[in-house]
Amino acid sequence: APARAPAPVPLPVPLGATDGEGKPYKYRQDGKYTPGEDGTYAQNYQDVWFEALAKHNGWLPGKDGGFYLDLGAYKPLECSNSAKLDLEHGWEGVSVEPRADMGFREKRPRTVEVVRAMKGTSGEIVEMGGPGGQLNHIVKKQASEGQKTARTIGPRDLVLCVNGTAPEGADCKGVSRTVAVPPFIPLVSMDVEGNEADVLKEWPWDLVDVGVFILETGAGIDCPSCHCSANCKEARRLMVEKGYVSRAGKRA
Fold it and tell me: In what side-by-side order are the strands of the sheet with 125-129?
């Protein structure tokens, strides 16, 4: 596998940048917001932070473009950590979201849409629920009759299916098309509502190495009072074990 990317260094653009009143820039007084209008599509300026880091590391501009995995992508533009790379820098990538009606094909035709629920293993039929919106998640490992369901896909099958190299009989349903997946992926954004550690445990390091993981685990590193669940602690342990360095993300 390619050598691990350099550890992040302090950058002039902090996560969670706010205006003079301490409010995120994107929320205007009229309550309206157009994704990207203030230079970010993300919920907490993660894309601006990564853009600066990518330039620092020489990933932008790249002669061969770039590649990302957006796991638990939610919407194509709103609260997206990958839209900026796609729309402004021409990167290819994959957006995994179990809901098929989010509009990726219309608003982000370059991304490979994968309509599956992200988990460590593939092929499970799980029940989806929660408060809705961005917090839609797997609520039961086994689906109840009449409830919204999704089929899971694990990270190894995801890479192989998108790359077009999955073995015969592999379950690649929901993968919109194939593209070449490079052996080094600068960014993996993962927000799979409590399944982050499960996915990381099954990460196919023999197939792809990753420069930066942006993980939403429900507790900021710089927030001692925030609860870090078992999933959060295990995800952090796995990252440290693989040689990654944490950078704090402020809550907005």
Answer: 117-118, 149-153, 125-129, 137-140
Q: What angle do CA 143, 123, 190 make, to 5 degrees?
A: 90
Interval 51-75: pLDDT, tens = 999 999 999 976 667 999 999 999 9
Q: Give CA–CA dist 14/22, Å, rounded.
A: 13
- Tens of pLDDT, residue by residue over 115-147, are 999 999 999 988 866 555 555 555 555 555 446
Single-letter amino acid, residue 76: P
Instruction: Give which of 185, 198, 202, 99 is closest to 141, Cα–Cα.
Output: 198
Residues 6+ apart with CB under 8 A from 151: 116, 117, 122, 123, 124, 125, 126, 171, 173, 174
The residues with which 95 forms a beta bridge, in sequence order, are 70, 113
Query: What separation, in Å, do the N-terminal and C-terminal C-alpha atoms of the chain show?
Result: 36
- Residue 24 bridge partners (DSSP): 18
Alpha-carbon distance of 160 to 167, in angstroms, equals 8
Give the tokens for residue 137. Answer: 């998640």
What is the 8-class DSSP label of residue 135?
G
Phi/psi region, residue 186 (left: phi>0; alpha: psi -120 to 50; beta: rest), is alpha
| Segment (H or E) for 200 | helix 196-201
Classify residue 93 by burial, with Cβ atoms within 10 Å: 0-12, 13-18, 19+: buried
pLDDT 10s digits, 204-236: 999 999 999 999 876 554 555 567 888 889 999
